[in-house]
Design goal:
This is DUF4374 domain-containing protein. Keywords: Signal. The structure is a single chain. Among the domains are: 108 residues, no CATH class; 182 residues, Neuraminidase, CATH 2.120.10. Helix content is 4%, strand content 48%. The strands form 7 sheets. Strands 1, 2, 7, 8, 9 and 10 form a 6-stranded antiparallel beta sheet that branches. The chain has a 5-stranded mixed beta sheet with strand order 5-32-31-30-29, with no helix packed on it. The protein has 2 helices and 33 strands. By secondary structure, it is mainly β.
């Protein structure tokens, strides 16, 4: 699975790759790349536009782009010629910056979002020698710190980590950390996912994959706990609420409520980190370093069609919006590119799941949706039909189509982020 996804990313961006042979460094050239004509769409009359603009990163039929728009609820965006060409694999935003991992260039790039709607490359870190392979898992620790993790496919029980100082945008510490590995089963490796820091611990999800059998190796739900910032004293925590992986690294698979409780997406699908069981949500309470033994939100049973939860974002008042893929409509993981995905309302306090009957779409919509001003925004891009950004009301589950997206035949939105207010 992991190898397939990497091959897919490299195929999409083939022909644009070039190797940067240099020592690990950080460029501070503020004029490297700038989007001169990013603000496309309406004339700014939408109420959201008064607060600034929004950046949308997407894979399209031809290339990959980041571009800004004045509104998510109206207008249209044609990526070609209106944004920055920016090959990306892992995306995250924090404050006024968008960050992406460019695999062929081996650069971790910082883009600045201006209050005037501008978008420009500000700096980058060369990733060779920082962590093995590339920055795979991106985790915001606090306003000034990002923790990144990386590993080779066959990690042999060790992965790399690095702490990035976001104010200076430089690596301030790096090292390796142990992950579970059994030398008697060398084909089973742990793929590191997303995590969080709480009460002096770093708790991270992931999944186990057996390359010899081409299947996931599942035993309940497992997470890894480390002392932070040392990244030592690894131990495994487990719940038997279901059997699947958690915290998938490039999906919106981890969220936190107002009380500081942490919720992981537990994907138990036979086509996604599990063996075809019940997918849902598991919880680690604020300050704890164990799974809550009394908590599991079953999403598969009430939705049917062997619904596998893929991602979720917390909105407010105990409500999150998530995405599922219907595995009864799939024959392989490649069918994620077909119309097999839909949205779901999750009541985390009462542990209920309710379908939001949005148009079926490929499940790329789960990658990095946005919660903004009490609403949830995601892309819905049905095969052969018009793609757009949809706004979802978390209170009643209603939705409406907003910004139309044109990617020359296909659009796979990777990130939606708000610019700072004017």
């Amino acid at each position: 699975m992991l190898k397939f996804l990497k091959r897919l990313s490299l195929t999409v961006i083939a022909g644009l790759a070039f190797f940067i042979a240099a020592i690990t460094s950080c460029s501070k050239d503020n004029s490297v790349t700038e989007c001169k004509n990013c603000n496309t769409g309406n004339n700014g009359s939408d109420p959201q536009a008064a607060g600034g603009a929004f950046t949308v990163a997407s894979w399209t039929a031809d290339l990959q782009y980041v571009a800004s728009v004045p509104s998510l609820t109206s207008g249209s965006l044609t990526f070609k010629g209106k944004g920055l060409e920016a090959n990306g694999s892992r995306y995250i935003w924090h404050k006024q910056y968008v960050y992406l991992m460019n695999l062929p260039m081996k650069r971790f790039i910082q883009y600045e979002m201006g209050a005037d709607g501008s978008l420009k490359e500000k700096a980058y870190i060369l990733t060779d020698g920082v962590v093995p392979n590339y920055f795979q898992s991106l985790n915001i620790v606090n306003d000034n710190t990002m923790l990144v993790l990386g590993a080779l496919d066959a990690n042999g029980g060790t992965v790399g980590w690095a702490r990035i100082n976001l104010n200076e945008f430089k690596v301030e510490a790096k090292g390796t950390m142990a992950v579970p590995y059994d030398a008697a089963k060398p084909s089973v490796n742990y793929a590191v996912g997303r995590g969080f820091v709480d009460n002096g611990k770093f708790i991270v999800g992931g999944y186990f994959y057996n390359s010899a059998t081409a299947a996931y190796d599942v035993d309940g739900v497992r997470a890894l706990v480390y002392d932070y910032p040392a990244m030592t004293n690894m131990h495994v925590i487990k719940t038997n609420a279901t059997a699947g992986g958690i915290g998938y690294d490039y999906l919106s698979s981890l969220t936190t409520d107002e009380e500081g409780n942490h919720y992981f997406v537990a994907s138990a699908g036979k086509f996604w980190t599990g063996a075809g069981g019940k997918s849902g949500v598991v919880r680690i309470k604020k300050g704890a370093a164990e799974f809550d033994p009394d908590y599991f939100l079953d999403v598969t049973t009430p939705l049917g069609k062997q619904a596998c939860l893929m991602g979720m974002n917390y909105v407010s008042n105990g409500i999150a919006i998530g995405s599922v893929q219907y595995e009864e409509m799939m024959t392989s993981v490649r069918d994620r590119l077909k119309d097999v995905g839909q949205l779901v309302k999750l009541d985390l306090r009462n542990k209920t799941a309710t379908l939001i009957n949005t148009p079926l779409s490929p499940v790329a919509m789960v990658r990095s949706p946005l919660v903004y001003d009490g609403k949830y925004y995601t892309s819905i891009s049905p095969v052969g039909a018009e793609a757009g950004i949809y706004e979802v009301d978390a209170v009643n589950g209603s939705f409406k189509k907003g910004l139309t997206l044109d990617g020359g035949g296909s659009v796979s939105v990777q990130l939606i982020a708000p610019h700072p207010a004017k």
